[in-house]
Design goal:
The protein is about 45% helix and about 15% strand. With about 260 residues, the chain is of the alpha/beta class. Helix 2 links the parallel strand 2 and strand 3. The protein starts with 15 loop residues before the first strand and ends in a 6-residue tail after the last strand. This is Glucose 1-dehydrogenase.
Length: about 260
């Protein structure tokens, strides 16, 4: 049998991982699991209070964690987050790019300002993260990046077009980044969650046009997912167990897109 890497002390033992969008939901649960699996984690989001509380939680449990306040739509903030990760932990082995904002409404009803903002965060922000992360990883000759898209990046549905356009773009960026950076030993993959019990889909303002109940009814497992279940997928993709996986789109949707 071949040697199994990355198992002693956890799937991410000894790795340094940057978690973008770490203050709530999928990002926060991923940070918890990455730390439990042995990683040193740098947390990034706009809310310092939430980052401070999560960092305190992780360090109180004996994990190595720190945070940087920043907006992924701002190039200097992204570069600073990556640089501070390297300064604190000595390297950058992995990254989860999770930050995003939602935008409901028919395409012709979305304002230009709202359209520009969601593109700035969900698309430009993702590109900025990739650019800075591969800059560091390329020098090390290795690394793994997981971007968070959505099943909305694989299909269309009414009333959420601007958001879905950004999630299609994330998949395109990921696939191109896998080609661009594979020769340098960097793996880039994307997770496409289905309905996940986060604050974004639980808003009472119609953020999910056909409703959470309708999505669950159309899901083979007949349930919505949890942030912790998405975190499990991200942990595996960042680990050495997924050493030959790059450019993949992993749906975490209970079979919704099957």
């Amino acid at each position: 049998m071949g040697e199994q890497k990355g198992t002693a002390g956890g799937l991410l033992a000894g790795k340094s991982v940057l978690v973008v969008g770490a203050s709530t939901g999928i990002g926060a649960e991923s940070a918890r699991l990455f730390a439990a699996e042995g990683a040193s984690v740098m947390l990034v989001a706009r809310s310092e209070e939430r980052l401070r509380d999560l960092t305190k939680e992780l360090t109180g449990a004996g994990h190595d964690a720190a945070y940087v306040v920043g907006d992924i739509a701002v190039a200097d903030d992204v570069a600073r987050a990556v640089d501070e990760t390297v300064d604190r932990f000595g390297r950058l082995d992995g990254a989860l790019n999770n930050a995003a904002i939602g935008q409901g409404g028919r395409l012709d009803d979305v304002s230009e300002d709202d359209f520009d903002r969601i593109m700035a965060v969900n698309v430009k922000g993702m590109w900025l993260c990739l650019r800075e992360q591969v800059r560091v990883m390329r020098g090390a000759g290795a690394g793994a990046i997981v971007n968070v898209s959505s099943i909305g990046g694989l299909r269309g549905s009414p009333g959420f077009g601007a958001y879905q356009a950004t999630k299609h773009a994330v998949i395109g960026l990921t696939r191109t980044a896998a080609h661009d950076n594979g020769p340098d030993g960097i793996r880039v993959n994307v997770i496409a969650p289905g309905p996940i019990l986060t604050s974004m889909i639980m808003k009472p303002d119609g953020s999910l046009p056909d409703g959470v109940k309708a999505r669950i009814a159309a899901t083979p497992l007949r349930k919505a997912g949890t942030p912790a279940e998405v975190a499990e997928a991200a942990t595996w993709l960042l680990s050495d167990r997924a050493s030959h996986i790059s450019g993949a789109v992993l749906t975490v949707d209970g079979g919704f897109t099957a």
